[in-house]
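Protein modeling request. Please complete all fields; requests missing the sequence field cannot be processed.
Requester role: graduate student
Desired output: 3D structure, C-alpha coordinate encoding
Chains: 1
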Amino acid sequence: MLVCVCMLVRDTQIVENSPKWMFWKRRRYIVAIMAFFGFFNVYSLRVNLSISIVSMTEIRNVTLENGTIIQEQEFDWDSSVRGYILSSFFYGYITTQIFGGWLANKIGGAKVFGAGIAVTSVCTIITPFLAKSSVALLITIRVIEGVFEGVTYPCIQAVYSRWAPPLERGRIATIAYSGSYVGTVISMICSAYLAEWLGWESIFYVFGTLGVIWFILWLWIVREGPELDSNITRDELELIRNSLGDVAVNKNIKHPWLSMATSVPVWAIIVSHFSENWGWYTLITQLPSFMKDVLEFDLGKTGIMSALPYLAMAIMIQFSGQCSDWVLTKGYLTTTQVRRVFNCSAFLAQTVFMLGAAFWLSPGGSTACLTLAVGFGAFAWSGFSVNHLDIAPQHASVLMGISNTFATIPGIVSPIITGAIVTTPTKEEWQIVFYITSGIYLFGCVIYGLCASGERQHWAMGNVQEKQNENGVENKGYEKEKI
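Delivered output (483 residues):
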Protein backbone atom coordinates (compact mmCIF):
# COMPACT_ATOMS: atom_id res chain seq x y z
CA MET A 1 0.00 0.00 0.00
CA LEU A 2 2.82 2.41 0.83
CA VAL A 3 4.37 1.79 -2.59
CA CYS A 4 1.07 2.57 -4.28
CA VAL A 5 0.72 5.82 -2.35
CA CYS A 6 4.27 6.82 -3.28
CA MET A 7 3.41 6.33 -6.94
CA LEU A 8 0.23 8.35 -6.61
CA VAL A 9 1.92 11.29 -4.94
CA ARG A 10 4.98 11.30 -7.19
CA ASP A 11 3.36 13.12 -10.10
CA THR A 12 1.29 15.59 -8.10
CA GLN A 13 1.86 19.07 -9.49
CA ILE A 14 2.30 21.17 -6.36
CA VAL A 15 4.93 23.34 -4.81
CA GLU A 16 5.84 22.17 -1.34
CA ASN A 17 9.13 22.17 0.53
CA SER A 18 9.40 18.44 1.22
CA PRO A 19 10.35 16.01 -1.59
CA LYS A 20 7.39 14.58 -3.45
CA TRP A 21 8.13 11.01 -2.45
CA MET A 22 7.80 11.89 1.25
CA PHE A 23 4.03 11.45 1.22
CA TRP A 24 3.87 11.16 5.01
CA LYS A 25 4.71 14.87 5.23
CA ARG A 26 1.54 15.66 3.31
CA ARG A 27 -1.20 15.39 5.86
CA ARG A 28 -3.96 14.99 3.28
CA TYR A 29 -2.39 11.67 2.29
CA ILE A 30 -2.10 10.62 5.92
CA VAL A 31 -5.84 11.26 6.21
CA ALA A 32 -6.39 9.22 3.03
CA ILE A 33 -4.33 6.31 4.38
CA MET A 34 -6.18 6.35 7.71
CA ALA A 35 -9.46 6.39 5.77
CA PHE A 36 -8.10 3.43 3.78
CA PHE A 37 -7.75 1.43 6.99
CA GLY A 38 -11.14 2.71 8.12
CA PHE A 39 -12.81 1.27 5.02
CA PHE A 40 -10.69 -1.84 5.48
CA ASN A 41 -12.51 -2.32 8.78
CA VAL A 42 -15.88 -1.30 7.32
CA TYR A 43 -15.80 -4.17 4.85
CA SER A 44 -14.03 -6.65 7.10
CA LEU A 45 -16.88 -6.22 9.56
CA ARG A 46 -19.46 -6.38 6.80
CA VAL A 47 -18.38 -9.42 4.79
CA ASN A 48 -17.09 -11.76 7.51
CA LEU A 49 -20.59 -13.19 7.90
CA SER A 50 -20.56 -14.28 4.23
CA ILE A 51 -17.71 -16.68 5.04
CA SER A 52 -18.68 -17.58 8.58
CA ILE A 53 -22.23 -18.51 7.58
CA VAL A 54 -20.79 -21.21 5.28
CA SER A 55 -18.99 -22.71 8.28
CA MET A 56 -21.95 -22.18 10.62
CA THR A 57 -24.34 -24.11 8.35
CA GLU A 58 -21.90 -26.70 7.00
CA ILE A 59 -22.95 -30.34 7.41
CA ARG A 60 -20.04 -32.24 8.97
CA ASN A 61 -19.42 -35.92 9.44
CA VAL A 62 -18.82 -36.68 13.12
CA THR A 63 -17.52 -40.02 14.38
CA LEU A 64 -18.97 -41.12 17.72
CA GLU A 65 -17.07 -43.17 20.34
CA ASN A 66 -18.69 -46.39 19.14
CA GLY A 67 -17.48 -45.74 15.60
CA THR A 68 -20.82 -44.60 14.24
CA ILE A 69 -20.62 -41.71 11.77
CA ILE A 70 -23.38 -39.13 11.96
CA GLN A 71 -23.95 -35.81 10.24
CA GLU A 72 -24.00 -32.64 12.34
CA GLN A 73 -25.02 -29.08 11.48
CA GLU A 74 -24.64 -26.33 14.08
CA PHE A 75 -27.24 -24.02 12.51
CA ASP A 76 -29.98 -25.60 10.42
CA TRP A 77 -30.77 -22.60 8.21
CA ASP A 78 -32.15 -23.10 4.71
CA SER A 79 -31.21 -20.83 1.78
CA SER A 80 -34.15 -18.51 2.46
CA VAL A 81 -33.17 -17.93 6.10
CA ARG A 82 -29.53 -17.41 5.09
CA GLY A 83 -30.67 -14.81 2.55
CA TYR A 84 -32.52 -12.85 5.23
CA ILE A 85 -29.58 -13.06 7.63
CA LEU A 86 -27.12 -11.83 5.00
CA SER A 87 -29.40 -8.96 3.96
CA SER A 88 -30.36 -7.89 7.50
CA PHE A 89 -27.29 -5.63 7.78
CA PHE A 90 -28.72 -3.45 5.04
CA TYR A 91 -32.06 -2.93 6.79
CA GLY A 92 -30.19 -0.73 9.25
CA TYR A 93 -27.63 0.53 6.74
CA ILE A 94 -30.24 2.21 4.56
CA THR A 95 -31.74 4.23 7.43
CA THR A 96 -28.75 6.46 8.25
CA GLN A 97 -27.37 7.44 4.84
CA ILE A 98 -28.93 10.89 4.52
CA PHE A 99 -28.81 11.45 8.28
CA GLY A 100 -25.09 10.63 8.27
CA GLY A 101 -24.39 13.21 5.58
CA TRP A 102 -26.40 15.85 7.42
CA LEU A 103 -24.75 15.03 10.75
CA ALA A 104 -21.29 15.21 9.18
CA ASN A 105 -21.95 18.81 8.14
CA LYS A 106 -23.11 19.66 11.64
CA ILE A 107 -20.49 18.07 13.90
CA GLY A 108 -17.75 16.95 11.50
CA GLY A 109 -17.26 14.05 9.11
CA ALA A 110 -14.19 12.63 10.89
CA LYS A 111 -16.04 12.28 14.20
CA VAL A 112 -19.04 10.52 12.67
CA PHE A 113 -16.88 8.25 10.49
CA GLY A 114 -14.84 7.07 13.48
CA ALA A 115 -17.83 6.59 15.78
CA GLY A 116 -19.73 4.58 13.18
CA ILE A 117 -16.91 2.06 12.79
CA ALA A 118 -16.24 1.90 16.53
CA VAL A 119 -19.80 0.92 17.44
CA THR A 120 -19.95 -1.61 14.60
CA SER A 121 -16.73 -3.18 15.89
CA VAL A 122 -18.14 -3.63 19.39
CA CYS A 123 -21.33 -5.15 17.98
CA THR A 124 -19.24 -7.57 15.92
CA ILE A 125 -17.41 -8.81 19.01
CA ILE A 126 -20.67 -9.83 20.71
CA THR A 127 -22.19 -11.39 17.55
CA PRO A 128 -21.24 -15.06 18.34
CA PHE A 129 -23.04 -14.97 21.68
CA LEU A 130 -26.20 -13.56 20.11
CA ALA A 131 -26.07 -15.96 17.13
CA LYS A 132 -26.06 -18.93 19.51
CA SER A 133 -29.04 -17.49 21.35
CA SER A 134 -31.43 -17.05 18.42
CA VAL A 135 -31.74 -16.09 14.77
CA ALA A 136 -33.79 -13.06 15.80
CA LEU A 137 -30.96 -11.69 17.94
CA LEU A 138 -28.42 -12.30 15.17
CA ILE A 139 -30.57 -10.39 12.71
CA THR A 140 -31.11 -7.62 15.27
CA ILE A 141 -27.39 -7.07 15.92
CA ARG A 142 -26.70 -7.05 12.18
CA VAL A 143 -29.37 -4.39 11.73
CA ILE A 144 -27.74 -2.30 14.47
CA GLU A 145 -24.34 -2.71 12.82
CA GLY A 146 -25.89 -1.48 9.59
CA VAL A 147 -27.30 1.60 11.31
CA PHE A 148 -23.86 2.70 12.49
CA GLU A 149 -21.98 1.73 9.32
CA GLY A 150 -24.56 3.62 7.30
CA VAL A 151 -22.94 6.94 8.15
CA THR A 152 -19.47 6.03 6.87
CA TYR A 153 -19.71 6.69 3.14
CA PRO A 154 -21.71 9.93 3.39
CA CYS A 155 -19.54 11.49 6.08
CA ILE A 156 -16.23 10.62 4.39
CA GLN A 157 -17.35 12.98 1.62
CA ALA A 158 -17.38 15.75 4.24
CA VAL A 159 -13.79 14.81 5.10
CA TYR A 160 -12.75 14.90 1.42
CA SER A 161 -14.45 18.26 0.92
CA ARG A 162 -12.08 19.81 3.47
CA TRP A 163 -8.92 17.83 2.71
CA ALA A 164 -8.86 16.96 -1.02
CA PRO A 165 -7.84 19.60 -3.61
CA PRO A 166 -10.03 19.34 -6.74
CA LEU A 167 -7.25 18.01 -8.97
CA GLU A 168 -6.47 15.28 -6.43
CA ARG A 169 -10.00 14.14 -5.66
CA GLY A 170 -9.77 11.00 -7.76
CA ARG A 171 -6.54 9.70 -6.25
CA ILE A 172 -7.30 10.66 -2.64
CA ALA A 173 -10.79 9.16 -2.81
CA THR A 174 -9.58 5.95 -4.45
CA ILE A 175 -6.78 5.51 -1.90
CA ALA A 176 -9.43 5.53 0.80
CA TYR A 177 -12.04 3.49 -1.06
CA SER A 178 -9.50 0.81 -1.99
CA GLY A 179 -9.49 -0.11 1.70
CA SER A 180 -12.93 -1.60 1.12
CA TYR A 181 -11.56 -4.09 -1.37
CA VAL A 182 -8.38 -4.87 0.53
CA GLY A 183 -10.55 -5.43 3.60
CA THR A 184 -12.77 -7.75 1.59
CA VAL A 185 -9.77 -9.74 0.36
CA ILE A 186 -8.12 -10.07 3.77
CA SER A 187 -11.40 -10.78 5.52
CA MET A 188 -12.45 -13.51 3.11
CA ILE A 189 -9.10 -15.28 3.16
CA CYS A 190 -8.47 -14.96 6.89
CA SER A 191 -12.07 -15.72 7.84
CA ALA A 192 -11.97 -19.05 6.01
CA TYR A 193 -8.84 -20.17 7.85
CA LEU A 194 -9.92 -18.72 11.20
CA ALA A 195 -13.12 -20.76 10.90
CA GLU A 196 -11.16 -23.95 10.17
CA TRP A 197 -8.46 -23.46 12.81
CA LEU A 198 -10.17 -21.62 15.69
CA GLY A 199 -13.87 -21.90 14.95
CA TRP A 200 -16.22 -19.45 13.25
CA GLU A 201 -16.54 -17.37 16.44
CA SER A 202 -12.92 -16.21 16.13
CA ILE A 203 -13.78 -14.36 12.91
CA PHE A 204 -15.93 -11.88 14.81
CA TYR A 205 -13.52 -11.52 17.73
CA VAL A 206 -10.48 -10.79 15.55
CA PHE A 207 -12.00 -8.27 13.16
CA GLY A 208 -14.05 -6.56 15.86
CA THR A 209 -10.89 -6.00 17.92
CA LEU A 210 -9.02 -4.61 14.89
CA GLY A 211 -11.83 -2.09 14.40
CA VAL A 212 -11.54 -0.84 17.98
CA ILE A 213 -7.76 -0.42 17.63
CA TRP A 214 -8.21 1.56 14.39
CA PHE A 215 -10.72 3.88 16.08
CA ILE A 216 -8.21 4.81 18.79
CA LEU A 217 -5.58 5.63 16.15
CA TRP A 218 -8.09 7.62 14.08
CA LEU A 219 -8.94 9.84 17.05
CA TRP A 220 -5.25 10.42 17.72
CA ILE A 221 -4.11 11.21 14.16
CA VAL A 222 -6.95 12.74 12.11
CA ARG A 223 -8.51 16.21 12.47
CA GLU A 224 -11.70 17.55 10.92
CA GLY A 225 -9.90 20.00 8.66
CA PRO A 226 -6.36 21.04 7.72
CA GLU A 227 -6.60 24.24 9.72
CA LEU A 228 -7.02 22.13 12.89
CA ASP A 229 -4.01 19.91 12.25
CA SER A 230 -0.94 21.08 14.19
CA ASN A 231 1.36 18.88 12.09
CA ILE A 232 0.45 20.30 8.68
CA THR A 233 3.01 22.49 6.90
CA ARG A 234 2.17 26.05 5.95
CA ASP A 235 2.68 25.23 2.25
CA GLU A 236 0.18 22.39 2.33
CA LEU A 237 -2.35 24.39 4.33
CA GLU A 238 -2.17 27.26 1.83
CA LEU A 239 -2.45 24.87 -1.10
CA ILE A 240 -5.63 23.33 0.30
CA ARG A 241 -7.11 26.71 1.27
CA ASN A 242 -6.39 28.25 -2.13
CA SER A 243 -7.83 25.33 -4.02
CA LEU A 244 -10.96 24.84 -1.93
CA GLY A 245 -11.77 28.32 -0.69
CA ASP A 246 -14.43 28.11 2.03
CA VAL A 247 -15.97 24.86 0.82
CA ALA A 248 -17.48 22.74 3.60
CA VAL A 249 -16.39 24.95 6.48
CA ASN A 250 -19.87 26.40 6.98
CA LYS A 251 -21.83 24.26 9.43
CA ASN A 252 -25.07 26.14 8.68
CA ILE A 253 -25.33 25.07 5.05
CA LYS A 254 -28.90 25.04 3.75
CA HIS A 255 -29.38 22.14 1.40
CA PRO A 256 -31.61 22.80 -1.67
CA TRP A 257 -33.60 19.59 -1.27
CA LEU A 258 -36.04 20.22 -4.14
CA SER A 259 -33.28 21.19 -6.57
CA MET A 260 -31.27 18.12 -5.64
CA ALA A 261 -34.31 15.86 -6.00
CA THR A 262 -35.05 17.20 -9.50
CA SER A 263 -31.45 17.35 -10.75
CA VAL A 264 -30.73 15.04 -13.70
CA PRO A 265 -26.98 14.72 -12.86
CA VAL A 266 -27.90 13.71 -9.29
CA TRP A 267 -30.17 10.96 -10.61
CA ALA A 268 -27.42 9.82 -12.97
CA ILE A 269 -25.20 9.30 -9.92
CA ILE A 270 -28.00 7.51 -8.06
CA VAL A 271 -28.69 5.08 -10.93
CA SER A 272 -24.98 4.42 -11.41
CA HIS A 273 -24.40 3.85 -7.69
CA PHE A 274 -27.40 1.49 -7.56
CA SER A 275 -26.15 -0.49 -10.57
CA GLU A 276 -22.60 -0.87 -9.29
CA ASN A 277 -23.79 -1.92 -5.86
CA TRP A 278 -26.20 -4.51 -7.27
CA GLY A 279 -23.34 -6.49 -8.72
CA TRP A 280 -21.11 -5.79 -5.73
CA TYR A 281 -23.60 -6.94 -3.09
CA THR A 282 -24.72 -9.93 -5.13
CA LEU A 283 -21.16 -11.21 -5.29
CA ILE A 284 -20.01 -10.17 -1.84
CA THR A 285 -22.85 -12.03 -0.15
CA GLN A 286 -23.27 -14.98 -2.51
CA LEU A 287 -19.88 -15.65 -4.12
CA PRO A 288 -18.61 -17.95 -1.32
CA SER A 289 -21.78 -20.04 -1.60
CA PHE A 290 -21.56 -20.12 -5.43
CA MET A 291 -17.96 -21.29 -5.35
CA LYS A 292 -18.68 -23.98 -2.78
CA ASP A 293 -21.97 -25.26 -4.24
CA VAL A 294 -21.32 -24.97 -7.99
CA LEU A 295 -17.54 -24.92 -8.39
CA GLU A 296 -17.13 -27.38 -5.49
CA PHE A 297 -14.28 -25.61 -3.69
CA ASP A 298 -13.60 -26.52 -0.07
CA LEU A 299 -14.00 -23.82 2.60
CA GLY A 300 -10.36 -22.73 2.64
CA LYS A 301 -10.15 -22.50 -1.14
CA THR A 302 -13.54 -20.79 -1.25
CA GLY A 303 -12.17 -17.93 0.86
CA ILE A 304 -9.11 -17.51 -1.35
CA MET A 305 -10.94 -17.76 -4.68
CA SER A 306 -13.77 -15.50 -3.49
CA ALA A 307 -11.17 -12.87 -2.60
CA LEU A 308 -9.53 -12.77 -6.05
CA PRO A 309 -12.07 -10.37 -7.65
CA TYR A 310 -11.65 -7.89 -4.81
CA LEU A 311 -7.87 -8.14 -4.99
CA ALA A 312 -8.15 -7.14 -8.65
CA MET A 313 -10.38 -4.24 -7.63
CA ALA A 314 -7.96 -3.10 -4.91
CA ILE A 315 -5.10 -2.96 -7.43
CA MET A 316 -6.99 -1.42 -10.33
CA ILE A 317 -8.72 1.27 -8.29
CA GLN A 318 -5.34 2.86 -7.53
CA PHE A 319 -4.57 3.06 -11.25
CA SER A 320 -8.08 4.35 -11.94
CA GLY A 321 -7.80 7.32 -9.54
CA GLN A 322 -4.34 8.27 -10.76
CA CYS A 323 -5.33 7.99 -14.41
CA SER A 324 -8.54 10.02 -14.12
CA ASP A 325 -6.77 12.87 -12.31
CA TRP A 326 -3.91 12.82 -14.83
CA VAL A 327 -6.31 13.08 -17.80
CA LEU A 328 -8.12 15.92 -16.05
CA THR A 329 -5.03 17.94 -15.10
CA LYS A 330 -3.57 17.55 -18.60
CA GLY A 331 -6.77 18.94 -20.07
CA TYR A 332 -7.32 16.01 -22.43
CA LEU A 333 -10.93 15.66 -21.31
CA THR A 334 -13.36 17.81 -19.38
CA THR A 335 -14.54 16.73 -15.96
CA THR A 336 -17.85 15.59 -17.45
CA GLN A 337 -16.08 13.53 -20.11
CA VAL A 338 -13.72 11.95 -17.57
CA ARG A 339 -16.58 10.86 -15.32
CA ARG A 340 -18.63 9.46 -18.21
CA VAL A 341 -15.77 7.66 -19.95
CA PHE A 342 -14.45 5.99 -16.82
CA ASN A 343 -17.88 5.08 -15.45
CA CYS A 344 -19.41 3.76 -18.67
CA SER A 345 -16.34 1.81 -19.78
CA ALA A 346 -16.39 0.06 -16.39
CA PHE A 347 -20.07 -0.87 -16.70
CA LEU A 348 -19.68 -2.17 -20.25
CA ALA A 349 -16.76 -4.37 -19.20
CA GLN A 350 -18.71 -5.64 -16.20
CA THR A 351 -21.71 -6.47 -18.40
CA VAL A 352 -19.55 -8.52 -20.78
CA PHE A 353 -17.62 -10.41 -18.11
CA MET A 354 -20.68 -11.12 -15.98
CA LEU A 355 -22.32 -12.69 -19.03
CA GLY A 356 -19.09 -14.60 -19.56
CA ALA A 357 -19.33 -15.98 -16.03
CA ALA A 358 -22.90 -17.10 -16.75
CA PHE A 359 -21.89 -19.10 -19.83
CA TRP A 360 -18.44 -20.30 -18.74
CA LEU A 361 -19.41 -22.18 -15.60
CA SER A 362 -16.11 -23.88 -14.82
CA PRO A 363 -13.73 -23.21 -11.90
CA GLY A 364 -11.18 -21.43 -14.08
CA GLY A 365 -13.60 -19.69 -16.43
CA SER A 366 -16.04 -18.39 -13.82
CA THR A 367 -13.28 -17.21 -11.50
CA ALA A 368 -11.50 -15.38 -14.35
CA CYS A 369 -14.67 -13.67 -15.58
CA LEU A 370 -15.83 -12.63 -12.12
CA THR A 371 -12.35 -11.34 -11.27
CA LEU A 372 -12.31 -9.19 -14.40
CA ALA A 373 -15.89 -8.02 -13.86
CA VAL A 374 -15.17 -6.78 -10.35
CA GLY A 375 -11.71 -5.49 -11.28
CA PHE A 376 -12.96 -3.27 -14.10
CA GLY A 377 -15.53 -1.85 -11.68
CA ALA A 378 -12.62 0.15 -10.23
CA PHE A 379 -12.97 2.63 -13.08
CA ALA A 380 -16.57 3.36 -12.09
CA TRP A 381 -15.31 4.65 -8.74
CA SER A 382 -13.43 7.40 -10.59
CA GLY A 383 -16.80 8.28 -12.08
CA PHE A 384 -19.88 8.38 -9.88
CA SER A 385 -18.17 8.12 -6.47
CA VAL A 386 -16.40 11.50 -6.74
CA ASN A 387 -19.05 13.09 -8.95
CA HIS A 388 -20.85 14.48 -5.89
CA LEU A 389 -17.84 16.73 -5.23
CA ASP A 390 -17.88 17.97 -8.83
CA ILE A 391 -21.49 19.06 -9.00
CA ALA A 392 -22.00 20.31 -5.42
CA PRO A 393 -18.96 20.08 -3.10
CA GLN A 394 -20.62 21.75 -0.12
CA HIS A 395 -23.54 19.29 -0.36
CA ALA A 396 -21.40 16.24 -1.22
CA SER A 397 -21.94 14.39 2.05
CA VAL A 398 -25.72 14.68 1.79
CA LEU A 399 -25.68 13.73 -1.90
CA MET A 400 -23.62 10.66 -1.09
CA GLY A 401 -26.17 9.84 1.60
CA ILE A 402 -29.00 10.11 -0.91
CA SER A 403 -27.28 8.03 -3.60
CA ASN A 404 -26.09 5.44 -1.11
CA THR A 405 -29.62 5.12 0.26
CA PHE A 406 -30.79 3.95 -3.15
CA ALA A 407 -27.57 1.96 -3.60
CA THR A 408 -28.27 0.06 -0.37
CA ILE A 409 -31.50 -1.40 -1.78
CA PRO A 410 -29.52 -4.06 -3.71
CA GLY A 411 -27.97 -5.19 -0.43
CA ILE A 412 -31.45 -5.90 0.90
CA VAL A 413 -33.11 -7.22 -2.24
CA SER A 414 -30.32 -9.07 -4.04
CA PRO A 415 -29.59 -11.75 -1.37
CA ILE A 416 -33.31 -12.42 -0.99
CA ILE A 417 -33.84 -12.73 -4.75
CA THR A 418 -30.77 -14.93 -5.07
CA GLY A 419 -31.97 -17.08 -2.18
CA ALA A 420 -35.35 -17.46 -3.91
CA ILE A 421 -33.78 -18.33 -7.29
CA VAL A 422 -30.96 -20.58 -6.10
CA THR A 423 -32.73 -23.31 -4.14
CA THR A 424 -31.32 -26.60 -5.49
CA PRO A 425 -28.63 -25.22 -6.27
CA THR A 426 -27.90 -25.72 -9.98
CA LYS A 427 -25.78 -24.00 -12.59
CA GLU A 428 -28.92 -22.90 -14.41
CA GLU A 429 -30.18 -21.11 -11.31
CA TRP A 430 -26.90 -19.24 -10.91
CA GLN A 431 -27.00 -18.25 -14.59
CA ILE A 432 -30.24 -16.38 -13.94
CA VAL A 433 -28.54 -14.42 -11.14
CA PHE A 434 -25.71 -13.41 -13.48
CA TYR A 435 -28.13 -12.42 -16.28
CA ILE A 436 -29.99 -10.07 -13.95
CA THR A 437 -26.74 -8.48 -12.77
CA SER A 438 -25.50 -7.95 -16.36
CA GLY A 439 -28.75 -6.24 -17.34
CA ILE A 440 -28.56 -3.83 -14.41
CA TYR A 441 -24.94 -2.93 -15.26
CA LEU A 442 -25.96 -2.14 -18.84
CA PHE A 443 -28.90 0.00 -17.69
CA GLY A 444 -26.61 2.01 -15.40
CA CYS A 445 -24.16 2.54 -18.26
CA VAL A 446 -26.82 4.02 -20.54
CA ILE A 447 -28.33 6.36 -17.94
CA TYR A 448 -24.99 7.68 -16.67
CA GLY A 449 -23.63 8.13 -20.19
CA LEU A 450 -26.62 10.25 -21.19
CA CYS A 451 -27.25 12.25 -18.03
CA ALA A 452 -24.06 12.68 -15.96
CA SER A 453 -22.29 16.02 -15.54
CA GLY A 454 -19.02 17.16 -14.01
CA GLU A 455 -19.95 20.85 -13.83
CA ARG A 456 -20.97 22.74 -10.70
CA GLN A 457 -24.75 22.91 -10.71
CA HIS A 458 -26.49 26.27 -10.50
CA TRP A 459 -28.21 25.33 -7.24
CA ALA A 460 -24.81 24.56 -5.67
CA MET A 461 -23.12 27.90 -6.34
CA GLY A 462 -23.96 29.64 -3.05
CA ASN A 463 -21.00 31.48 -1.54
CA VAL A 464 -18.42 28.87 -2.50
CA GLN A 465 -15.23 30.56 -3.61
CA GLU A 466 -13.83 27.66 -5.62
CA LYS A 467 -13.78 28.66 -9.29
CA GLN A 468 -14.36 26.51 -12.31
CA ASN A 469 -12.98 26.62 -15.81
CA GLU A 470 -13.88 24.52 -18.81
CA ASN A 471 -12.12 21.51 -17.29
CA GLY A 472 -14.03 21.74 -14.03
CA VAL A 473 -11.71 23.61 -11.67
CA GLU A 474 -9.19 26.38 -11.37
CA ASN A 475 -6.85 25.40 -8.57
CA LYS A 476 -4.75 28.30 -7.28
CA GLY A 477 -2.53 25.94 -5.39
CA TYR A 478 -1.13 24.73 -8.70
CA GLU A 479 -0.46 28.09 -10.35
CA LYS A 480 3.25 28.29 -9.48
CA GLU A 481 4.15 25.19 -11.47
CA LYS A 482 2.97 24.54 -14.98
CA ILE A 483 0.85 21.43 -15.35
